[in-house]
Amino acid sequence: MARGGFTNHLPLMRVLGILLGLLVFIAWALFQLGRHYDRDSLKPALWQWASATDSFASPSTAPPQTGWLTIAEDSDPYHSRQAYWLRIPLRGADVREPELWILNATTLSVFGEGKLLYAYDPAANGERVNLNYHWNLAPLPSPLPAEVYLLLDNRNGLNPEPDVQLVGKGDFLVHLIQKDLYCFLIGGLFLFSFFFATGLYTIRRDRLHLYFAMLSLCGAYESFVQNYLMQWLWDQPWLSYMELGIFPLGVFGFISLMNVVFGEDHTRALRKLRWIVLGFAIVTLMGAVWMKIAWFEWLLGYPLLLLFLVAAGIILRSIWSAYQDRQGIESIWMLAGFFVMTAVALVHVLRTYLPAFFNVAKRNIPLLNNLPFDILSIGLFLFLICLIRVIIHRFGKMNEQLKAFNASLELNVAKRTSELRDKGLELQQANARLAHTMKETAEAFASTMVLEERNRLTGTIHDTIGHSLTATIVQLEAAKRLLARDPRLAENKLDASQELVLRGLEQIRQSARLMRDDTTQYDLQEAMVSLIEESENATGVSIEHRIDPLPDNLTTLQKRVLFQALQEGITNGLKHSRCQHFRFSLRVGPSALAFKLISDGRTYAPSAFGFGLQAMSERVANLGGTMAISPGQPGCILELSLPYGLSDRRALS
């Protein structure tokens, strides 16, 4: 935006006009509420004064009889550092429960009708007073005396002109409530702003909210003590006196706010100035308690005014530079608030810290007499309105950024959701293909194992039957040769041939039983019981058996392995150990089957597995199980542990 041109500054003029209008309206309304009633009942022009030689208030002290002078511009005691007397006429006044309301007096005594009516000396109580907000209320006898005498002592200080009014006790309280009740209202608003800003700082850790809270707290303290009603509620002079030291701390908060609101390009000088002001504020607070009054008044005089003017100039330069670079909402409202706050603070500094100079200014500018005493709180309240406008603007910008971020986030979420949906479809398709492939693989593997098993059984049948038939042929040829020479031996050879044929036939039956294709109807328990009964009938051995009800989810391969293990165990026991008794059990555990075959006969000596046992061990391992052979007492123990309920892929792996 162009830097020149009146129209470019219209937004600033408009905001400044609104703030000034509010300031004038509030000041006028407060002046109407706090108008001094009966102000002309005690006209200063009718007062007289005289020098005092004794400033101590005591019943023996009496006003002088001579030496009284008329109050005039060229003859008044107000700017003297010595004690003096005032004689104030009370003729013609009609007030119920009369009292003298005395302002701008440090140490004083009130005499009437030749006796002491009231006395106050802050030094006697170890107190310090702020004459801007401290007052004395001296009760008067009724009926009123014709005149009263005031003994005043400035205690080597230059105090403002005393203000004495005749008031009624009840009317006085009503006047204070009408005049100063709004101060507590503004103080409550400042206190609410303090807690609100503190909460924001706790959440966001933004220094703008921290300094806003500091300035609000200073404003709350100023509002609560910068009124006459506060002394009526709590007569503690230190409360209003410490306000003299709180003001520099508020200036520090004000400068810190400006340092945060505007960029670093415009606040280099402010960053150094704020620490100087903070140091001065700390010295002022300590001096309010421990410094001599004369030194403290000097500290609050020209050094404070000079620091205030320098700070105001630097702040104005920084804000104006920021305003010219960017005439946005923040710079416009902060610049307008600065103008109002600086003007009000300057009036406050002159009236509070340079009362003699302000009294001269009031004579030349009568409008200053109508300003409310707590105009600083009003100016600070208007400035906080500007600051709240800046904070609202920042929250608005943050809200827009959050909306943009939210829209971007929703777009990203929608995009990501679409991607995930596509990925899900791809995974479903891949899973379907994988399931189909696994099914085909399982079927192929199962067919391969069945084929291998058939080949093994075929080879077994071929080898067994071939061997049996070969042996039978040999026996028959021998019997044929011996038939003529030794019929009895030939008969034995024929019996042996018959036994070989029967044994081969039994082996063919056993092999055929394992090669049945109807595996779904294959009852393992029934097949094992049949095998046991056939073995007992054919060989004459006894076989004790216990078989638990088997689970329904046993696979064909698991059934075949279990059956072949029983068959191989019985055959090996008969063939190698000459067993006569077997004990067999097949127990169902939570996740595995426990196979155990115990045989008597010769004790088993651990050795390398033969072809049959090695093949059976490999089949058990392929199904995830284990096989172990150990010596018995005597005999042999064959044990298998075979898991069940696994997926086809695990079972076939």
UniProtKB/TrEMBL annotation:
The keyword rRNA processing does not apply. The chain crosses the membrane at residues 12-31, 181-203, 210-229, 241-261, 273-293, 299-320, 332-351, 371-392. Residues 453-518 form the Signal transduction histidine kinase subgroup 3 dimerisation and phosphoacceptor domain. Residues 184-387 form the 7TM-DISM receptor extracellular domain. InterPro entries: 7TMR_DISM_rcpt_extracell_dom1, HATPase_C_sf, Sensor_HK_TwoCompSys, Sig_transdc_His_kin_sub3_dim/P. It catalyses: ATP + protein L-histidine = ADP + protein N-phospho-L-histidine. Its EC number is 2.7.13.3. Keywords: ATP-binding, Kinase, Membrane, Nucleotide-binding, Phosphoprotein, Transferase, Transmembrane, Transmembrane helix, Two-component regulatory system. It comes from the Bacteria. One of its GO terms (molecular function) is kinase activity. PANTHER family: NITRATE/NITRITE SENSOR PROTEIN NARX-RELATED, NITRATE_NITRITE SENSOR PROTEIN NARQ. This is histidine kinase. It comes from Cohnella yongneupensis.
